């Protein structure tokens, strides 16, 4: 008989509706004894709480228990794994206690999986790039850790539910693809964000403000910290093209001196050729194969239609596509 997959989603309801019966013991514990887990990567704020949710918590309390583990470093205290909104709502409404399921003896990696899956279910597209990076990196490492544990413990369930999708551990060899499938990303997106985990905080702030494109940050993240800090000194308003970032990386890889970063930035920042992220030529023959209506149009008419279509597309996907294509304020595309 097939075993039931390890299901995380039941712990992550945003609504305080009645929880299904659990075979696990539920205890009421003081909210002041629950701390944020050290591996938590995102933080819930008051503005993220729905007014109806707060009204319900104020009137009835939290009905769906949060998930905690004992804090081994502080007797009598707990780390929160799931239920960040419920805990914050209880605190804001003046609730002294909250129902909780206390888990003990979790296998290696499973704590990180619990935490990051609930964070990602809040909506990966609504996260800042730094939050995406930290969360995906933490879950990627936790999955690898838990998968390794399961290889030597056959009694553990060999299926795991992430983002509402069930994966067999035997199929998690390509963890990046599994994360992409679970959370509606592409493997390229996942790879890009995982690669940013070594980016310095000062540069990550620029990525979050969208003054530094992810395409450029990907190159800078491969530099040692001292080179990244030197780059941050000379990048005007922390704006730099992917071409410039690539040249800085080449300088490092070829044994150059970090003082050369200034020359790369100043010698290319006014060169319009390096402000072009990419240009694409589409043959008339290819256009005809897609639409017979374009065959009778001249080049200007076709260019106008394509420009309008691209403008409409990028306006409807402003954040995702600016990240994927590498555009920022200092770059232009043709």
From TrEMBL:
Cellular component, GO annotation: chromosome
Disordered, as annotated region: 1-24
Domain ParB-like N-terminal per the UniProt entry, residue ranges: 27-121
Pfam families (alphabetical): ParB_N
SMART domains: ParB (SM00470)
Top-level taxon of the source organism: Bacteria
GO biological process: chromosome segregation
Polar residues: compositionally biased ranges: 1-17
Official protein name in the record: ParB-like N-terminal domain-containing protein
Protein species of origin: Ruthenibacterium lactatiformans
């Amino acid at each position: 008989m097939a075993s039931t997959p390890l299901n995380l989603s039941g712990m992550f309801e945003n609504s305080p509706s009645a929880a299904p019966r659990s075979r696990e013991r539920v205890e009421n514990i003081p909210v002041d004894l629950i701390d944020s887990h050290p591996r938590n990567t995102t933080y819930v704020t008051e503005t993220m709480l729905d007014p109806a949710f707060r009204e319900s918590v104020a009137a009835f309390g939290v009905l769906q228990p949060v998930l905690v583990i004992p804090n081994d470093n502080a007797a009598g205290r707990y780390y929160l794994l799931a239920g960040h909104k419920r805990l914050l709502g209880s605190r804001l409404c003046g609730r002294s206690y909250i129902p909780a399921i206390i888990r003990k003896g979790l296998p290696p990696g499973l704590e990180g999986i619990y935490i990051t899956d609930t964070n990602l279910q809040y909506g990966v597209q609504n996260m800042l790039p730094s939050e995406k990076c930290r969360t995906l990196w933490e879950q990627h490492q936790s999955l690898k850790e838990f998968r390794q544990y399961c290889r030597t413990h056959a009694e553990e369930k060999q299926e795991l539910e992430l983002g509402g999708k069930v994966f067999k551990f035997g199929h998690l060899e390509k963890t990046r693809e599994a994360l992409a499938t679970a959370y509606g990303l592409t493997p390229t997106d996942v790879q890009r964000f995982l690669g940013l985990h070594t980016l310095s905080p000062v540069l990550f702030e620029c990525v979050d403000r969208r003054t530094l494109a992810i395409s450029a940050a990907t190159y800078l993240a491969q530099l040692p910290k001292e080179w990244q800090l030197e780059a941050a000194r000379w990048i005007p308003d922390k704006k730099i093209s992917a071409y410039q970032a690539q040249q800085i990386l080449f300088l490092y890889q070829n044994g150059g001196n970090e003082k050369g970063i200034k020359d790369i930035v100043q010698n290319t920042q006014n060169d319009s050729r390096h402000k072009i992220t990419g240009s694409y030529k589409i043959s008339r023959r290819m256009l005809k194969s897609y639409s017979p209506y374009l065959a009778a149009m001249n080049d200007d008419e076709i260019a106008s239609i394509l420009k309008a279509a691209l403008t409409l597309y990028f306006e409807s996907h402003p954040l995702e596509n600016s990240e994927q294509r590498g555009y920022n304020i200092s770059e232009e595309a043709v």
